[in-house]
Amino acid sequence: MSDASAEHTDVFEGPYGSWPSPLTAAVIAAGGVGLGGPAVRSGPSGDEIWWSELRPAEAGRVVLCRRLPDGTVEDALPADLSARTRVHEYGGGAWWFAGSDVIVNHWGDQRLYRYDPDDPSAEPVAITPEPEVAHGWRHADGVATPDGAWLICVREDHHDLPPGSHEPRNEIVALPLDGSVEPHVVVAGPDFVAAPRVSPEGRWLSWIEWNHPDMPWDATELKAAPLFDGARLGNEKVIAGGRDGNAVGGGVSIVGPDWTSNGRLVFSSDQTGWWNLQRWRPESGDVEQLTELDDAEIGVPPWVFGMRAWTELADGSLGCVVTRRAIDAVHRVVDGELTDVGLGLTHVDGLAASGDDLVVLGSTPTGSPGIGTIGADGTRGLVRAPNDLGVDDSWFSAGEAMELAVGNAVTHAFVYPPSSRGRAMTDGPPPLVVVGHGGPTARAGLTLNLKVQYWTTRGFAVADVNYRGSTGFGTAYRRQLNGSWGIADVDDCIAVARALAADRRVDPARMAIRGGSAGGLTVLRALQTSEVFSAGTSLYGVADLEALASDTHKFEARYLDGLVAPYPEGKAIYDERSPINHVDDLSSPMLVMQGSEDEIVPPSQSQAIVAALAAKGVPHAYLEFEGEQHGFRQAPNVIRSFEAELWFYGRVFGFDPADSIEPVAGAVDLG
User: Fold this and answer.
1) Model confidence at 484: pLDDT above 90
2) What pTM was computed for the model?
3) CA-to-CA distance for 75 and 102, rounded, in angstroms?
4) Distance CA 208, CA 224 (A)
């Protein structure tokens, strides 16, 4: 990368937080294109590599791109479409191939559209009916039958809900590619369905299903049924997975299933306590173990559709992503043996195959995500270069893994010291920002996270905590948060901060905690239950557990049964653990930011906390971004959110940012 900020390379003496940084909020918003995919399509001239780009500069539009066999890279989605779905609200799996056509679920109306990317004059054709209510039918995670006659996908139906129910129906439906007749339901009944996949010869349909109160990383069933003419199913059978007893989270989780070219069904199962690959043979009904990892796993929690940690190469071998202590590596699997392909990546977000080449979307601790290929002989190629931020890699802080005992348990974190290029540190240990990730069943990865580097390049240390309940450490660690959300995660964040302060790696008087969504609950609880942090930032954070249990979308409607307690039986626990019920314990300055159209954590949660802070006279600031959902995607809002948070820490910790920042209007007692 080039360095567009030579003026900042001279020594700068000033307080932590005031360091000039080339990584401005505007640079992050402009260069913060989110990459998704990849996927491979057989085009007229050979294999094409496709991927998606979420572009803040286009108001959060998701665009499809492709690299042609001759190396040409181009946008490959009609300008009036955005490939994004609202199924489960988190989306994913919003586009796929059907022969030479591309199928897209358009964000604007949530209908499926078909178009031919090789005919620029052809208009996209809607192949699902127009709903009676806006976004009444939503689609995701589809596949075409081998004969090209049918599309089979997940549909979320918000029409004609049963009396007293506010939950849509989640079904698998089939529809003809030409849209000539309305879709018909092929799988119905379970609360949730995902990953419909058709065997290569078109004889079987497989899928995953699960029911409340489980989440898909708790317990799912993998099923298959014969597929007949007219996209009709025969009798279904359970292949793997299922619940184990009545306890929430007690069972086997199956994720990422798909068929190989020889008609075998490969999937990840955590039956051994770690997600490992297994394979089902339809002709015998046997399930066999393909990998036997006991300190790492192949699989991730399916927060969005279309997630799969393996792919099949032309020679029949498999490529896969092995996650060990939240650090990824790409391997090949041959006869059950795993071999690291030596890419040197530490975080992988997508995997596909083009012949015998693996196509990988990944990043390193100081390198932005990009898409490349690696052949069986080690030959490498570049498909989509990492975002050019105009900032040299030497500005970035490389994270180091930290493992820490917390009572009888263990927690993990990645710790990033201030990146001190060209700056003199003159005021003792630096301030600390502790990050609690969302989910809470997610993870902090060892990757170039601009939300971390924004702080380190200005003189902050950052601790990105993989508290108990995070993924990437096996099933037992993932389940340690069951019944303890708002306790174990908080204890872990506090313990990491205290340990860093005790080692004089950070200033104990200047420690802040930030988090979004579930991480926002961690922020609020940490500020209420300890005096470790002197400031906190909650981004669309959970404040009222009881309200969340009764007013959120279907996918997470029973999530808290496992994380907190069954509701309403456990109402007393919800009351005790909800930050909104303990506002008298809030005294540290807070910044709260929220999207106005958030269906996952409604704005009322943030508004209630802000009202409580105002009533008590606690210094605070509040920003609500119009048109944003769960997370900020539009460039002006991304910029404002970063700058407002830096301004906030400057007021609390007593420094003037080098950036020119407009104060937050309506801020109370923050100067």
Assistant:
1) yes
2) 0.92
3) 13
4) 9
